[in-house]
Design a protein that fits this description.
With about 525 residues, the chain is of the alpha+beta class. The chain has 12 helices and 21 strands.
Length: about 525
């Protein structure tokens, strides 16, 4: 057994969730080359369930543009008898593949890595895939969205693979439906810092090289991967409710950011009081010195650029809460399909708005609102969102059925603000106390899983004791905006055929928050 195999075996034994059913017989067939997600054709793969990604990552130099070179071990369970299976991969090169220690045939087919083991895999069988020699090269951020998937800054490189782009960095089952534990082993020049999702469990410096290991023991979707190597400052914020709080910043930014980062513990308390126990071991804010154009909820370490903190506090303070809320909504409780994105962005926008209203900041946050007008109360904001409802459904599709996987439709006003409006309507329908029970039950019942919009509808009905299926389906899938409970006087604006909102959505919502 190799050192890598021993390490993987040790981690598996420590992760109690990694249990495997006894293998079953069945005629082996090729695994599906995608998961039939209509918004991500070709994304994900069928026939197996990944339980662990173990990434061995080497950076030869400290140059921020240095390519990542890696080997990878994937531990998975077959969910059908497989003659071959696919991984998503659009990166650079693969030199060899092994399945259960035996050399396997492999081929590249577009963004697919097609692997044929020497023997078929039985339904329910655990198997281990070893991939040698993959690589990825970071690029300087630009107007091209793909330039920030793996990007450079003056201090180092980092990743932002949402929604479909982890496959550009490492081979994976790149869909939020298939979450897994992660281990990251870094080999970098001495004096260079590495940080990734989860907790650092070991580090040492020897022979001019620094070796460190991070473990993300709770399941994570590939789109939330953070792999960052460079010159970073680490600032401890202590512990809250047993959770480690620490921030990571570009050294040139640290001093100016400390007052904003000091709010992290109080933001953490505010959210845990409303939605319950934080689902991971660690949390922090990661600020890079690069104009990436958005903030992103990479799991346990939310990514920002410095432009956020040059805005009024009424912009960056609620936005930090938005990204923190994603650790429950979108990270711990992920998505079954990309059409379920409102479950992530609608919820986090809801808590962002509640937080901003409590602190008198709601009216300040005009930067990403389509009419650049602030609203002093949540009710007034929701009435304004309601007025836009039919137009947004026309331009982007219903809240839980975006018209396409194009970022302008997927990350649209209707998913963020419209998703929050659905939650407001639900609260109006069932009352505040029942609504709060639904929210807590959602993140508790589906912790570590990837549920669907229909799962939310079913759970809301069960917890509230009311049949909400027709009500919520109208709000989530309807072509027009339903009447708002308790506000019979609210009206939607007439629909304009050429609204220009798709372009506005791309330039504003995408800049703000995936």
């Amino acid at each position: 057994m190799t050192v890598a195999s021993r390490r993987t075996a040790a981690l598996l034994s420590a992760l109690a969730a990694l249990a495997f059913a006894a293998p079953a017989m069945g005629a082996p067939r090729p695994g599906a080359a995608d998961l039939n997600d209509p918004l991500d054709p070709g994304g994900g793969n069928g026939g197996y369930d990944v339980r662990l990604y173990d990434l061995d990552l080497r950076y030869e130099t400290a140059d921020p543009g240095q390519a990542l070179e890696g080997d990878e071990t994937i531990v998975a369970r077959a969910t059908k008898s497989l003659s071959r299976f696919n991984l998503d991969f659009a990166g650079e090169g693969v030199s060899a593949v092994w399945v259960d220690g035996k050399r396997a045939r492999f081929a590249r087919d577009g963004d697919e890595l097609v692997i044929t083991p020497q023997r078929a895999l039985r339904d329910g069988e655990r198997f281990v895939v070893r991939i040698a020699g993959f690589a990825a090269t970071p690029t300087e951020p630009s107007d091209d969205p793909l330039s920030v998937v793996f990007f450079t800054s003056p201090d180092g490189s980092a990743t932002a693979p949402q929604p479909y782009y982890a496959r550009m960095i490492y081979p994976s089952n790149d869909h939020p439906r298939d979450k897994a534990a992660f281990r990251f082993d870094f080999d970098v020049p001495a004096g260079t810092d590495a940080v990734a999702n989860g907790v650092e469990v070991s580090h040492r410096t020897r022979g001019g090289r620094r070796h460190s290991t991070y473990v993300m023991r709770q399941p994570m979707a590939t789109q939330l991967t953070q792999i960052a190597v460079g010159d970073w400052d680490f600032t401890s914020q202590g512990r809250r409710r047993g959770v480690i709080l620490r921030d990571v910043t570009a050294p040139s930014l640290t001093a100016s950011l400390l007052p904003a980062l000091a709010l992290g513990p109080s933001q953490f308390d505010w959210l845990t009081e409303r939605v319950g126990r934080y689902p991971f071991d660690i949390y922090g804010t990661f600020v890079v010195d690069a104009d990436i154009g958005f903030a992103l909820e990479t799991q346990t370490l939310s990514l920002f650029d410095p432009g956020w903190f040059e805005s009024p506090q009424g912009v960056w303070d609620p936005t930090m809460v938005h990204e923190l809320a994603h650790q429950w909504f979108g990270d711990s409780v992920a998505l079954d399909e990309w059409s379920d994105l409102w479950l992530s962005e609608g919820h986090t926008s809801w808590y962002e708005f509640l937080y901003a209203e409590e602190r008198g900041q709601l009216e300040e946050d005009t930067t990403f609102w389509p009419d650049e007008q602030g609203y002093p109360t949540l009710v007034e904001l929701m009435r304004a969102v309601y007025a836009h409802g039919d137009q947004w459904r026309h331009d982007f599709g219903p809240v839980a059925r975006p018209s396409s996987g194009d970022p302008a439709d997927l990350f649209s006003f209707n998913v963020y603000h419209g998703g929050a409006l659905v939650l407001y309507a639900l609260r109006q329908k069932i009352g505040t106390r029942a609504f709060e029970r639904v929210e807590r039950a959602w993140v508790d019942r589906y912790e570590g899983e990837s549920p669907s919009t229909e799962d939310f509808i079913d759970l809301a009905s069960k917890v509230s004791g009311r049949n909400l299926k027709g009500f919520l389906r109208d709000w989530l899938y309807g072509e027009t905006t339903p009447r708002m409970p308790g506000h019979s006087d609210w009206e939607t604006d007439p629909v304009v055929e050429e609204s220009g909102l798709r372009a506005l959505s791309t330039s504003r919502v995408l800049r703000r928050l995936p």
